[in-house]
Amino acid sequence: MEKKDFLFEELNTLSKKIKDTKGMPEDLVTRLVQMLDRLDRMANLGHYATEFDTLSRYIETVTSIPWVEETKDILDLEGAKESMDRHHYGMQYAKDRILEYLSTLILLSQRGEGAVSKSPVLLLVGLQGVGKTTLAYSLAETLGRKFERIAMGGIGSSTELRGRSKSFPEAEPGQIIKAITRTGVRNPLILLDEIDKASGEQGLRSDIMAILLEILDPKQNVAFRDHYVDYPIDLSNVLFICSANTTGTLSAALMDRMEIIKMPSYTDQEKTVIAKEYLLPQIIQKSGLKPEELQIDPDLWPGIVRPFGYDSGIRSLGRTLESICRKVAREIVEGKVTEVKLTSENLKYYLPQ
Q1: Does residue 226 contact residue 173 with C-beta atoms inside 8 Å?
Q2: Which residues pair with 124 in a beta bridge?
Q3: How far is the C-alpha of 3 from the C-alpha of 183, rounded, in Å?
Q4: φ and ψ at 25, to 5 degrees?
Q5: Model confidence pTM above 0.70
Q6: 48 vs 148, higher pLDDT
Q7: 8 Å CB contact between 73 and 144
Q8: What is the pLDDT of residue 1?
Q9: How is 131-198 classified by DSSP, letter by letter?
């Protein structure tokens, strides 16, 4: 196939995408059609320019945005309680605050109000490993919403959130538009994870806080303008949840629009229950073991839960259990044992060194 034929085939594909995209605003459709006409003229003239790549990539991006597709919220308070209890042990204060938040969503929805746009943004504050991300995922699962996580610790400049104009080489939309496009719906739950870790430079952090304010403020996010898309996009249907280790670096204006839920650290007793009931069964399965192939003396749990001193979360506990399971799996594969029972005599060998 000649290059010219290939270009015309690509133009036909782009034209079909524009026609098939549901709910795209008419003025934006008109703009895309004008771009296609321009690309068509370029192809007919027989020369291939960088502009062809730029415009075709832009059309691909804009037609991938979900303009009207959405999921229907499941507003079930009892179901939410069961889901959180299934995924999280303890944390009653945080769970109660989430249920109260859901209750306001349910009341507003039942009374015909815009529930999400009238609700404050939840900010989950706590040390690493206390369950902020999994709590946000549980809420998405409860509501029946698609879930996306944006790691704010990797955001080094404001353009990563808002995108960069398509006139620049290698330009692309920002993380917000990318997240919505990945979910395929206009009303996902998006977790802005560890917003306190966005850019360590004071000036850049101020820019990022200002953009976050625009993204999260219901009076501003109805017409969020990504620099790449260059068209106002309504984010009022997106349910944003933020997490942070500390609130010290967040701007006062941003904090005013948030409902803070403090996530407590786990006690050793809570960690023991979490390890037995939640973590170990999952890790045994992921390691290829059967439950009967690894038995743990109940008296050993304090040494497993805290082998290296205090830790506020459960990530290091999960890594400890993974290490134990891997060693057991290796011994079974090598034919040394058919099952392992952890005792005070052999615990040190199985713990990570």
Answers
A1: yes
A2: 243, 261
A3: 34
A4: -55, 145
A5: yes
A6: 148
A7: yes
A8: 42
A9: SHHHHHHHHHHHHT--EEEEEGGG--STHHHH---TTSTT----HHHHHHHHHTSSS-EEEEETGGGS
